[in-house]
């Protein structure tokens, strides 16, 4: 990955390869959501939906979690950032409940990332070894809890749900907070100097641009996709 020195000066406080990877994650996420819209709203069968594309969507989410964890080690205001992200997640909950009450977002990736930032604010002083142990324990407990069902949805934020639980986007604290913590471990070791690990980082192109504006793109891409698909399926195809 190569970048000119003049390009890096445009964003002196950013680590370009992290923006680059976040840009890849946003592309993977948008592709997954576009295919989801085709299948869920227009009954277009997507080959390998429960295999390849399922894991493609999970890869995107895991990248976001790891990168968010890394970024938290650079920030001095994770508490405020966490509350803002969690609030946006709650607004999505309200919006999706109004539009799709049967599968609205109860605890999606923004809820997870926001609450993870808040929790990290309070546990950031834990030694690296114990942070690693904690992350592994959370992941293992999450795998175990995924096999357990209860009679209420109130514990869904931690990963305990009932049989009929349904949510468009669901990333509970167990196991996914463990993945976020692994990101903080990477930030505290690989990026302990808070600068790029490359002597020359990636060129500041489209992926870096998407990475810098990932939250905004996350919020607007689905309404745009749904509008485009509505126009295509209700007007263009009827005319054709």
TrEMBL record:
<keyword id="KW-1133">Transmembrane helix</keyword>
<protein>
    <submittedName>
        <fullName>Heparan-alpha-glucosaminide N-acetyltransferase</fullName>
        <ecNumber>2.3.1.78</ecNumber>
    </submittedName>
</protein>
<feature type="transmembrane region" description="Helical">
    <location>
        <begin position="128"/>
        <end position="150"/>
    </location>
</feature>
<dbReference type="InterPro" id="IPR012429">
    <property type="entry name" value="HGSNAT_cat"/>
</dbReference>
<dbReference type="Pfam" id="PF07786">
    <property type="entry name" value="HGSNAT_cat"/>
</dbReference>
<feature type="transmembrane region" description="Helical">
    <location>
        <begin position="105"/>
        <end position="123"/>
    </location>
</feature>
<feature type="transmembrane region" description="Helical">
    <location>
        <begin position="52"/>
        <end position="70"/>
    </location>
</feature>
<keyword id="KW-0808">Transferase</keyword>
<feature type="transmembrane region" description="Helical">
    <location>
        <begin position="170"/>
        <end position="191"/>
    </location>
</feature>
<dbReference type="GO" id="GO:0015019">
    <property type="term" value="F:heparan-alpha-glucosaminide N-acetyltransferase activity"/>
</dbReference>
<keyword id="KW-0012">Acyltransferase</keyword>
<feature type="transmembrane region" description="Helical">
    <location>
        <begin position="215"/>
        <end position="237"/>
    </location>
</feature>
<keyword id="KW-0812">Transmembrane</keyword>
<feature type="domain" description="Heparan-alpha-glucosaminide N-acetyltransferase catalytic">
    <location>
        <begin position="14"/>
        <end position="223"/>
    </location>
</feature>
<keyword id="KW-0472">Membrane</keyword>
<feature type="transmembrane region" description="Helical">
    <location>
        <begin position="82"/>
        <end position="99"/>
    </location>
</feature>
<feature type="transmembrane region" description="Helical">
    <location>
        <begin position="20"/>
        <end position="36"/>
    </location>
</feature>
